[in-house]
Structure formats: structure tokens, C-alpha cells
Amino acid sequence: MSSNLFMVRLVILFFLSMLLGQSRTLVQAQDISGYWQGVLYQEFPGNTVYHPYSMNLSQNGTNVTGTSEILWATDPSYYGIMSLDGQFDGSIFSYQELAILMQNPHPSAAWCIKQGDLVYDGVNQILEGPWQAPGCYPGTVELHRLTLISDTVFCLSDTARLEVTGIGIRWYSDPELTNLLDTGNVFFP
Fold it and tell me: Of 4, 31, 51, 80, which is the most exposed, with the fewest CB atoms less than 10 Å away?
């Protein structure tokens, strides 16, 4: 098969899969599955601290499962990864972290096992709201869904341009996040 015919078939398959995916989305309710990244604020008396915070969610009907990750703001080598589950009614995501799966806590702190009710903004793809945890000062969470919005098929002769939604985007070349390539919503690999 010639390479041009192969590319044409690949593009047709891509568009068919996109059309089928869109028709499925029209039939079902809002789905918050995906990777969400943002900030967790904690309100101490006279002081508010923040931590980079993310959730990776998978929704099945109204049930949601996944993980959350919190980083120490001044040194991301300190982290906690928690399992979570919850319910999503189309506008409110009520969640409960269940257990710490992995962690490297800061020597002066311990991670809170949080629960909260986050309001879903479907237009701007934001989850935000209060959280609380036993034995911890409460706070708020603001998360933005990361979604690839640029083309996903490129010709070898074209310059690839990747664009995602979200804020505070960082592009890395490795899964350990040690080799930062660029920042911002657009990246030219």
C-alpha cells in the first residue's frame, strides 16, 4: 500500500472515531474523566499556604474513582498520592480521599486525607470548592482540566504544534518530570 493511501485511511479513521466519540458524548451526561491540575489552598490562622494539586479521574455513570497528588510548593520532591472515590451529579463532584498510596512528606508536615464538594464549570472546565479533613485546617481547591486541543496528526514536513487547555502547563521529556522542556499552553517539539 502506498504511503499516501495509508495516510488517507488513517485520517479517515481518525475523523470517524472523533464523530463516534462526539455522538456518544451527546447521549451521555457530563463526564469529568481526565487529568485535572491546579492548586490546593489551606487556611491557617493568619496565613494561607498553597500546594500544586492534581486529580486523575475516571467516571462510570455517577461513580468516580481515581487518584489525587499533592506537592510541597517550594520542593516538589515532597509529595503524596492518594486514592479517591466520589459521586458526580452533573454539577457537583463530591469526593473522599481513601488512603495514601505513595508519599514523601515534608519533615515538618503530614498529608491530610481530604473530602470535599467541587462545583463543575463545564464551559471553562474547572472544578473548585472547599475541602476539609479530620485534624487539618480546611481550605479550597481549584482544578483545570487538561485537554489536548491541537491537531494530533502531523506530516513529517510540518512543524508539530501541541496545544492544551489548563493553567501553569509544563512540558517534560521524561515521566519523572526532571527534564523541563518548556512552559505554557503551546509547545513545539
Answer: 4
